[in-house]
């Protein structure tokens, strides 16, 4: 869904309904847009998934309704370990269906995780996935609704008292067989994949016409079909900010373009300059989520004073202005396989100089080049510009730079260096709004970098599956110095729309449509 490309706000944990609503008001009062608020373990009844804390989230319906008025969504965590409690409906259903993983001796496997003694569904089994999908039904999961999204964590699976912090290799799965005969060692790497799939199927069963959203920590080849991934528990350290770039580039090249790293670092309290730099880089991650551990200090931007709030606001507004570009890149990845993030050498494998900058620079699509700032004391940054002509994204009046060499820049405190390849068009939406849902009717602005220039834009309803039957617009834009021409585009792998007759409209660089 389009909302998934907006800002995600998370921590372990927002403690109750009033805490959530206060954070929601804080973003509005600070004029910082966001789309999704995340609830970690403590929102449940004693870490029983598919439940709400009977005191702290007794009024969860009011909370969800309030956020929905601003087109905002909520994510709840649903891990695979299920508390062993005969009075817990979810456990009773899974046990009665005989879809729990077995020990080598054939008993239901019991491990230890967040709820205490826990049992693990055999997600490799189609029957288990069907039972799990049924748990998203509002008759089973109170307040379940089409846009209550899901976070699948700890699904390697994590077992605190198991060997290598996971389960025994000789545990038994049924998978597609008639009996529990498949050892865990043979399916360990796909356990998270199938957990992810089962949760997506649950959301689709609950609301067949609404796109699902499920984040997973454990993944496998093909997980990109189900939803986003992230890099796991990181630290609030400059080194972890730096490592996010090669990690996300690796994921993108492996087909997992919809990925991100916890902005600010999950563990520890980041100094303010690190937190600001992480937001400034995080807006260029495909999946942009701020997250923090239970023991950390609160990090909502307004807690750091007016200047820090303004800096985060400007970063987040940049993200929202560029949502048409992000949505187009995600569509091109989903429908033709083009990676969203690309290494600086990606478009010219013969550019030997580019490889030295592979860990601190990256392309967003084919036009935008981002240089990460990952050192606290960095006074001057070297930015390698591949061959061609380059515009400063932040100052379009600045001199155009010739590429094929490194450029030394003084990092601005308010943003990371970003350049746009000359000859490209970036489509934006410039009106500040609370969330993506509030932007639907806003006009598009076409920003032209150099002449002649070309670009593309993809538009659909942002939430349904109608695009699969052709209900979308995918246009190529071409600017020749005096007019802007649009024609229907075709996806690289051969999409359903053919190139049509061009349309021509007057245009000037930076003009809005």
Written overview of the protein:
With 513 residues, the chain is an alpha+beta fold. 23% of the residues lie in helices and 20% in strands. The protein has 10 helices and 27 strands. It has helices spanning 17-29, 60-69, 89-96, 126-134, 184-187, 191-206, 238-253, 272-282, 306-321, 323-336; strands at 8-9, 36-39, 73-77, 82-83, 110-113, 116-119, 148-152, 172-173, 182-183, 214-216, 229-230, 259-260, 289-290, 341-343, 361-364, 368-371, 381-385, 389-392, 401-402, 405-409, 418-421, 424-428, 445-449, 453-459, 473-479, 483-488, 503-506. The strands form 8 sheets. A 6-stranded parallel sheet has the order 10-7-3-2-1-13, with helices on one face. Helix 1 packs parallel to helix 2 (60-69), helix 4 packs across helix 6 (191-206) and helix 8 (272-282) runs parallel beside helix 9 (306-321). It is globular, with a radius of gyration of 24 Å. Residues 1-329 form the Glycoside hydrolase family 31 TIM barrel domain. GO terms for molecular function: alpha-glucosidase activity. InterPro entries: GH (IPR017853), Glyco_hydro_31_C (IPR048395), Glyco_hydro_31_TIM (IPR000322), Glyco_hydro_b (IPR013780).
């Amino acid at each position: 869904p389009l909302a998934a490309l907006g800002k995600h706000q998370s921590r372990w944990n927002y403690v109750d309904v009033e805490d959530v609503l206060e954070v929601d008001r804080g973003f509005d009062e600070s004029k910082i847009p966001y789309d999704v608020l995340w609830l970690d373990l403590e929102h449940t009844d004693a870490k029983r998934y598919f439940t709400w804390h009977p005191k702290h989230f007794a009024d969860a319906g009011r909370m969800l309704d309030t956020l929905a008025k601003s087109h905002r969504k909520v994510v709840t965590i649903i891990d695979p370990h299920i508390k062993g409690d005969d009075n817990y409906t979810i456990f009773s259903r899974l046990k009665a269906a005989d879809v729990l993983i077995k020990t080598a001796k054939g008993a239901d496997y019991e491990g230890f995780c967040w709820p205490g003694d826990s049992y693990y569904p055999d997600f490799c089994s189609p029957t288990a996935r069907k039972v799990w999908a049924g748990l998203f039904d509002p008759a089973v999961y109170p307040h379940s609704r089409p846009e209550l999204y899901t976070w699948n964590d700890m699904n390697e699976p994590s077992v605190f008292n198991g060997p290598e912090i996971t389960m025994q290799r000789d545990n038994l799965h049924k998978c597609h067989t008639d009996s529990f005969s498949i050892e865990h060692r043979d399916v360990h790497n796909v356990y998270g994949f199938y957990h992810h799939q089962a949760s997506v199927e649950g959301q689709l069963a609950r609301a067949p016409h609404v796109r699902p959203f499920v984040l997973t920590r454990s993944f496998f080849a093909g997980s990109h079909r189900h939803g986003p991934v992230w890099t796991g528990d990181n630290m609030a350290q400059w080194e972890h900010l730096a490592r996010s770039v090669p990690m996300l580039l690796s994921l993108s090249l492996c087909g997992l373009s919809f990925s991100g790293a916890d902005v600010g670092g999950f563990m520890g309290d980041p100094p303010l300059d690190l937190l600001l730099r992480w937001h400034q880089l995080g807006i260029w991650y495909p999946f942009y989520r701020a997250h923090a551990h239970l023991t950390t200090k609160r990090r909502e931007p307004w807690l750091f004073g007016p200047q820090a709030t303004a800096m985060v606001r400007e970063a987040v507004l940049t993200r929202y202005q560029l949502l048409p570009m992000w949505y187009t890149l995600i569509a091109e990845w989903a429908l033709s396989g083009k990676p969203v993030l690309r290494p600086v050498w990606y478009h010219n494998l013969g550019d030997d100089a580019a490889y030295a900058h592979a860990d601190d620079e990256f392309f967003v699509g084919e036009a935008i080049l981002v240089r990460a700032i990952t050192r606290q004391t960095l006074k001057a940054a070297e930015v390698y510009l591949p061959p061609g002509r380059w515009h400063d994204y932040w100052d379009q009046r600045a001199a155009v730079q010739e590429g094929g060499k490194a450029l030394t820049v003084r990092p601005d405190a308010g943003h990371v260096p970003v350049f746009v390849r000359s000859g490209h068009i970036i489509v934006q939406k410039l009106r500040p709004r609370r969330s993506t849902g509030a932007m639907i009717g806003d006009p598009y602005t076409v920003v032209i970098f150099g002449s002649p220039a070309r670009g593309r834009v993809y538009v659909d309803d942002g939430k349904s599956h109608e695009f699969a039957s052709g209900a979308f617009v995918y246009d190529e834009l071409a600017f020749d110095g005096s007019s802007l021409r649009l024609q229907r585009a075709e996806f690289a792998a051969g999409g359903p729309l053919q190139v049509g007759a061009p349309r021509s409209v007057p245009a000037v660089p930076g003009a809005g449509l």
